[in-house]
Amino acid sequence: MILDGKGGNDTYHSYYANDTFVFNSGYGALEINNENYSGGTFASVLRFGPGVTLDSLRVTSDGNVLVLRDGVDGDAVTVDHFFSEFGWAGITSVELNDGTVLNVSQLIQLEETGSTGADTLYGTSGADTIDGRGGNDLAIGNGGADTFFYNAGYGALEISSDEGSTPTSVLRFGEGITASSITVRNSNSGTAIQITDGIDGDVITIDNMYSDSGTKGVGSVEFFDGTTLTAQQLIALNAGRAPEATYYGTTGADSITGSGEDELFDGKGGTDYFKGNAGNDTFVFNQGYRALEVDENWYSGQAPVLQLGAGIEASMLKVSVANSHSGLVITDGVAGDQITLDNMLYDYQGVSTIRFADGSTLSKAQIIAMETTGTSGADSMYGSTAAELFDGKGGADYAKGSGGNDTFVFNEGYGQLEIDETLNDGATTVLQLGAGITRENIKAYFDGATLVLTDGISGDQIRIDNEKYSNNGINLVQFADGATLTQADLQTLPTTGSASNDSLTGTGDSEVIDGKGGNDTVNGNMGNDTFVYNQGYGALEINNNYWYGQNPVLQLGAGITAADLQVATDASHTGLILTDGVAGDTIHIDNIKSTERTGVGSVTFADGTTMSAADLIALTTVGTTGNDALYGSSSNDMFDGKGGDDTIT
């Protein structure tokens, strides 16, 4: 279908068709809102009339909208959803009156090439080449291995790029700009860097080069002479944003307080205390400086730095939690050297980055991760409200998550681990169990509100504090074989067995206890509990007590009827043995005859039939015509030996 609005302020809506949209010079505003099948064969064409040439066509974008202008005042064609991630909206080509045809890729290339004015250029999720052509430009990469061009005299360029992984995007300089001619400094935001080339007005701002994610900025810089700098080498050139004040200490004990501006602190060794009072501060520490305490709080967009001197490498650092459990202590392997970062586990406290002499960096998240990795000894690990991975590496470890999407690692032979975690709204906290630990060999019980897990290895135990409460503990267990347990599963884990031999204990609440077969022992530990038993389950022993007014139930599954049930007194004459006619099936109810409120209060069958505890006991006080030994309970019993030579106790 050919659609021609003849000018004005028109909107075309099209759905799944081979449409042609006509636009002539002077038509004014046209909006195209078109949908097509994803991967379909429909072709939607924008056809320009006489006078519109490739040279006069200007292509820009606004979010995922493509905008085309022909140089005539008031003329603009807006193509909605052109950059949609679904790839089924917009147009498939542009036709010019001289026969030129532009496909989608060519349109995107035109959009990524600016003018000498102020442009906002958007890339796609693929590998794009973006050239603003000078002016005051913003280039947004939108993922992919993009190339950003910059020539001498281009003026201001801001690059915003996030690839979701280690950056591979390139900033490519034109002729005349060399590695020796550029200057690199921090931006006012603290997380970006600014590059100047010595030409008045030329400045490139690369956003978030110091971000915690490590996925933003560019991966390298290429020069016209073939020289290449990696991101780390570029950062190493950083002269730092010129501080508004510099504070120097002495070799003794110094206490220095900043003003809230961007400042540099260098205590020169001794036992020093720095209070930054916000700002993009830099705290200098060299080998042999001894003790330094940094007390810094900062605002969003600021990025205080701990600058470590020559000879200190990341591999030399040891990170532990401070006595306050909110700060971190860093040592560099030199006797007496220690840096305390107060409240580092809190947002906007401590420092955002550690920078080494070679230009390499550690983000705040990476620094905290060093503290949440333990040793084979007893470790206490404290996290922040962010997402962290805790791996105590065995021993007798304590891990406090403090909220966030935390993961706690436990492998066979790790010994003891205590997890103290608070669940924030929407957070997922994971207990990651290593190879060899399966659902079948996990045993569980509650110690008060704490869930205790064992894996069958002597000495291995995981204690999850307050797991009984929904806003604490772990809400997902992941096994190496891919199996998982939810928080709801964990609540019932102590009362759900396996096909092997289990010992299950309730908590005092009303619970369903199901041994799942094997040779099981269960204890409801008070409460209106239900003990499940199905045909073929094998041996079950119920050792249970309950309070006045409670009625624990033995729930017998399909196929077991009251007529099938055989009841006998056990060898101690205090309990009952029930059989269902299936070989190997026995239910032993301890002490039900000797003590009130012991065992179960009733038995229910799948067909709805019920028997009270008294009904069960009565079955053992009625004999046969042979010689019987009948045993009563502590209640009032009626005995009928039915003849023979009977003994009644």
UniProtKB/TrEMBL annotation:
<dbReference type="InterPro" id="IPR001343">
    <property type="entry name" value="Hemolysn_Ca-bd"/>
</dbReference>
<feature type="region of interest" description="Disordered">
    <location>
        <begin position="494"/>
        <end position="520"/>
    </location>
</feature>
<dbReference type="Pfam" id="PF00353">
    <property type="entry name" value="HemolysinCabind"/>
</dbReference>
<dbReference type="InterPro" id="IPR011049">
    <property type="entry name" value="Serralysin-like_metalloprot_C"/>
</dbReference>
<dbReference type="InterPro" id="IPR010566">
    <property type="entry name" value="Haemolys_ca-bd"/>
</dbReference>
<feature type="compositionally biased region" description="Polar residues">
    <location>
        <begin position="494"/>
        <end position="508"/>
    </location>
</feature>
<dbReference type="GO" id="GO:0005509">
    <property type="term" value="F:calcium ion binding"/>
</dbReference>
<feature type="domain" description="Haemolysin-type calcium binding-related">
    <location>
        <begin position="328"/>
        <end position="366"/>
    </location>
</feature>
<dbReference type="Pfam" id="PF06594">
    <property type="entry name" value="HCBP_related"/>
</dbReference>
<protein>
    <recommendedName>
        <fullName>Haemolysin-type calcium binding-related domain-containing protein</fullName>
    </recommendedName>
</protein>
<feature type="domain" description="Haemolysin-type calcium binding-related">
    <location>
        <begin position="451"/>
        <end position="489"/>
    </location>
</feature>
<keyword id="KW-0106">Calcium</keyword>
<feature type="domain" description="Haemolysin-type calcium binding-related">
    <location>
        <begin position="201"/>
        <end position="233"/>
    </location>
</feature>
